[in-house]
């Protein structure tokens, strides 16, 4: 490399390489991008960083310091220079580059451009230093990934013109990290497709308890329960009961006998059974995970149209009846349907009369059983 590195720089360089090679250690792509941005900024003394990661499902843009929506406009702002000077191709050719190197053939024009005055200056993204790699895409074209670091005030880098050379050893790690991230993304998408095809409600949790995916059946169950937030939290708790076992998981056997692996619970509206299965590393995700199956034990309340047709109710009475079947009070029904408690009570009384029910509970049982 031709650079004499201090011990601190060697350690920072190794830390940046480890961060770039660690996409499998993070539940989300943006968490990996955050770790990379921080490590590279620490290496060269940058104030800010933006990570533009080309994946099969699109470009994932991440920055802690910048408004990501604004940063995502970078390709649009730079397009005039790209069209005239093939800027992205030059980035790929250089691999590791600094602003003056990248824009050398037209530096005065760069400082006069709308890109500089309308993007760089308002964003306070000065003295750019970057890494750029491309990987083949399934379409036959290529996906570009670039990591840009900046000062928030114009100034000199502590390594001066050699800053790009300090970053150059990171190019193989960046390429390897992006390749690994792409494989993980494809694997995650395949898993999501498999779960989505199943009729059972399934929620996949990462080792840190973060929800990775909920299939449509699970989302429908959550949407049908007014206490969905609590239900989701209880599903996460069920998953966390198995998380301490992840470190010792040597195979993919379901751990149904483990404490918390199966439990029943009740919200204000329904009873559920949750079954959690521990999945070893590499089975369906890059890291160990917990798959929680969600089953509703209480029959779902019928829709208003079904209730109206079966019991000869008016449209409004049928809407009230659906909430009545969920065990809601008159006040709760009034809030849900934007009517007064008095009107809600009046509708409930008429429903009881038409159903020949002696109590709210009896009416609710008949309505719930009509689905």
Can you describe what's shown?
The protein is an alpha+beta fold. The chain is built from 17 helices and 10 strands. A hairpin with a 5-residue loop joins strand 4 and strand 5. Helix 1 runs antiparallel to helix 2. About 3% of the residues have low confidence.
Short description:
This protein has 371 residues and is an alpha+beta fold. It is built from 17 helices and ten strands. Helix 13 crosses helix 14 and helix 14 crosses helix 16.
Please specify the SSE layout and strand pairing.
Layout: H1 7-20, H2 29-44, E1 48-55, E2 58-62, H3 68-71, H4 74-85, H5 87-94, E3 96-98, H6 99-102, H7 107-112, H8 114-123, E4 126-136, E5 142-151, H9 163-167, H10 171-196, E6 201-206, E7 211-214, H11 216-223, H12 228-240, E8 262-266, E9 271-279, E10 289-296, H13 304-311, H14 315-325, H15 330-337, H16 341-355, H17 360-368
Antiparallel strand pairs: 1-2, 1-5, 3-4, 4-5, 6-7, 6-10, 8-9, 9-10
Helix pairs in contact: 1-2, 4-5, 4-8, 13-14, 14-15, 14-16, 14-17, 15-16
């Amino acid at each position: 490399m031709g650079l004499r590195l201090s011990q601190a720089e060697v350690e920072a360089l190794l830390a940046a390489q480890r961060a770039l090679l660690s996409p499998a250690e993070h539940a989300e792509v943006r968490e990996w991008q955050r770790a990379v941005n921080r490590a590279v900024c620490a290496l060269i003394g940058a104030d800010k960083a933006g990570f533009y990661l080309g994946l099969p499902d699109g470009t994932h843009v991440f920055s802690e310091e910048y408004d990501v929506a604004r940063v995502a406009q970078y390709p649009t702002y730079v397009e005039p220079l790209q069209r005239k000077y093939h800027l992205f191709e030059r980035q790929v050719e250089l691999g590791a580059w600094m602003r003056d190197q990248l824009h050398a053939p037209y530096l005065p024009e760069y400082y006069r451009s709308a890109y500089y005055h309308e993007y760089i200056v308002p964003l306070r993204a000065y003295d750019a230093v970057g890494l750029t790699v491309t990987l083949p895409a399934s379409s036959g074209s290529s996906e570009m990934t670039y990591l840009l670091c900046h000062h928030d005030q114009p100034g000199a880098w502590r390594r001066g013109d050699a800053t790009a050379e300090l970053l150059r050893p990171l190019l193989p790690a960046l390429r390897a990290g992006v390749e690994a991230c792409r494989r993980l993304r494809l694997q995650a998408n395949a898993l999501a497709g498999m779960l989505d095809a199943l009729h059972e409600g399934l929620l996949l949790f990462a080792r840190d308890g973060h929800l990775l995916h909920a299939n449509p059946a699970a989302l429908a169950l959550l949407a049908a329960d007014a206490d969905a937030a609590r239900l989701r939290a209880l599903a996460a708790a069920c998953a966390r009961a198995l998380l301490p076992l992840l470190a010792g998981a040597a195979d993919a056997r379901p751990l149904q006998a483990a404490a918390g692996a199966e439990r029943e619970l009740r919200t204000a509206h329904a009873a559920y059974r949750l079954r959690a299965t521990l999945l070893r590393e590499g089975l369906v995700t890059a890291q160990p995970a917990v798959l929680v199956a969600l089953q509703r034990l209480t029959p779902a309340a019928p829709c208003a149209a079904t209730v109206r047709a079966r019991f000869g109710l008016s449209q409004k009475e049928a809407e009230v009846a659906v909430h009545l079947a969920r065990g809601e009070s008159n006040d709760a029904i009034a809030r849900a349907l934007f009517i007064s408690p008095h009107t809600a009570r009046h509708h409930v009384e008429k429903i009881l009369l038409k159903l020949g029910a002696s109590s709210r509970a009896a009416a609710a049982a008949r309505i719930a059983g009509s689905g």
